[in-house]
Design brief:
Blueprint: H1 6-18, E1 28-31, H2 36-52, E2 56-62, H3 69-83, E3 88-92, H4 101-120, E4 124-126, H5 131-143, H6 148-151, E5 157-158, E6 161-162, H7 170-179, H8 196-212, H9 216-244, E7 250-252, H10 253-257, H11 261-274, H12 282-293, E8 301-302, E9 308-312, E10 315-319
Parallel strand pairs: 1-2, 1-4, 2-3, 4-6
Antiparallel strand pairs: 5-6, 7-10, 8-9, 9-10
Helix pairs in contact: 1-2, 1-7, 2-7, 5-8, 5-9, 9-11, 11-12
Length: 336
């Protein structure tokens, strides 16, 4: 008897590696839109679940942004049940406007996924981001002038979230669905060039391929992986340095000045978050850094939500504003 198609085997192997550390009996959830990426992921998870002793269910998020979205969600749920995933939940969400349509839809989606995961006691939620999604994320970060953490793209494992397909090209997931006879849904938003990600996918990546040759997406994904290792190391160094400084909002300016700038900027962000200051923009970090390295008696630095940073002798003090204790909201990448 012949084995599965090559593409099917590649997707299954990627999923198996991604969940190999989970103890038997851990519950998995597959986030599935019905697109080829998440559908291939769901098929692989349903195949592996009984063999690995990892019960697997599914979640379909209905954003309600298009006519017929409820019917699409119901059809995807039927597909997932037929694959053997159980339970399969449909969650209808209200998409706000904060941060733009892509960010608002992403925030609503992740909140829904976390709610279902908590409700069923899931150990992990599998997301269908591919190598191509990773490449797009890196280009978007470059275009926005982001730092190493953003250019590092999406992590294969980040708390509850697991992305088994970050090393799998999109064409492979499509071929896997075709090989298994799984009709995939094409989201109309994936052809809407009002979205930056669609423009990167349709225009920027093909232009790079023409300019520098094939394999750009894989190279960008590889760069993200290398940058993530560097960013993780710098984050760890900064965490240790901050704790060595007392892990508070009053920092020894002399000791701070002795740190490399890449570490010092991270320490400043850690201290600001601990003080209840909302996330700092680059200009805030640079102004705080001047209080440490270019101190000439200048006054306080204004930070988000009325917070401030000031130099008092040999110390840097961070003070929350009217929104005391405001929690920093971590940006999570768009699901697929």
């Amino acid at each position: 008897m012949s084995g599965p198609a090559t593409e099917v085997a590649l997707v299954r192997a990627a999923v198996r590696r991604c969940v190999a550390d989970l103890p038997r009996g851990s519950h998995l959830l597959v986030a599935c839109s019905g697109g080829a990426d998440s559908l291939a992921l769901a098929a692989a998870a349903s195949f592996l679940a009984p063999r690995e002793g990892l019960p697997a269910g599914g979640v379909v998020v209905d954003h309600g942004l298009q006519p017929g979205s409820a019917e699409v969600a119901a059809s995807v749920r039927t597909q997932l049940l037929a694959l053997g995933l159980t339970p399969v939940r449909i969650v209808r969400v209200e998409v706000g406007r904060g941060g733009g349509p892509e960010a608002a839809a992403r925030d609503a989606r992740y909140a829904a996924l976390r709610f279902v995961a908590d409700d069923v006691g899931a150990a992990a939620v599998l997301l269908g981001h591919t190598l191509d999604d990773q490449a797009e994320s890196v280009l978007l970060g470059l275009g926005r002038g982001s730092g190493a953490r953003s250019l590092a793209g999406m992590a294969p494992v980040s708390g509850l979230w697991r992305r088994p397909l970050l090393g799998i090209p999109r064409e492979t997931t499509r071929a896997a669905c075709a090989a298994e006879g799984l009709p995939a849904w094409e989201d109309p938003h994936n052809a809407d060039d009002s979205f930056a990600r669609v423009r990167v996918r349709r225009d920027a990546l093909p232009a790079l391929e023409r300019a520098v040759g094939p394999g750009v997406a894989a190279a960008l994904a590889r760069s993200a992986r290398l940058l993530r290792a560097d960013a993780d190391a710098l984050d760890g160094w900064a965490e240790s340095a901050w704790r060595g400084l007392g892990a508070g909002a009053v920092l020894d300016a002399g000791e701070l000045a002795g740190l490399p700038r890449a570490v010092r900027s991270r320490v400043l962000r850690l201290a600001a978050t601990d003080a209840g200051v909302p996330p700092l923009a680059l200009e805030h970090v640079e102004e705080l850094d001047r209080l440490v390295t270019e101190w000439h008696g200048q006054g306080p630095v204004s930070l988000p939500a009325g917070a401030s940073g000031r130099r008092a002798g040999g110390a840097l003090l961070l003070t929350p504003g009217a929104v005391a204790g405001a929690a920093a909201v971590q940006d999570e990448p768009r699901g697929r």
